[in-house]
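Example record

One chain of 199 residues, shown exactly as stored in the release files.
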Amino acid sequence: MVRKQILTAKFKGLRSRIIPKAGEKLGRALKRLPIEVSGGLPVLALENSRPDHDAVAEISYATALSAGFDLRAADDLVIPAGEWRLVDTGLRLAPQDNKPVARLRLGRTGFDVVAELQIRPRSGLAVKRGITVLNAPGTVDADYEGKIMTCLMNHGSEPFKITKGDKVSQGVFALAIRPHSVSVSDTSRGQGGFGSTGH
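Predicted structure tokens for this chain:
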């Protein structure tokens, strides 16, 4: 028991001397690096894309921790079995006051952080009716100014009827990293295609 206490005391002593010194060295090293940060956290907002439908008022998150919000149809529509249709959500991205990008440069390399709106399927529609977003996840870039549409595919055996106001998909705001430059060299990887690394 006494030996354990002595070892514990020695370890605490080493930790109290080593860790602060390592932290100081790391801090000094970071200060010497040519790090440049510009811009702010990219933030997107939505607005109505048509005067006859207040789609913004219908935006909602199902729970307190939901990542996605409901996207609703702005028109009545029928999607035949085995076909797909573009469904207008009545929304578009609001104009940006500033360029929605944060830039981090570390020496000669770095990356931009850009925002996007992802359009994803609703799990209930997929499981119960075979309805999914054909290009899931669809990406709406921050500088896209047109209507936000959902490309719905009917994998079911019956026509899928949509009534104005129905929840048809969900939107998720996300951040993406865009490298300033990417250098790719030839390697042995990529020669075998799909499944080249085994099962």
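Notes: Residues 68 and 157 are 28 Å apart (CA to CA).
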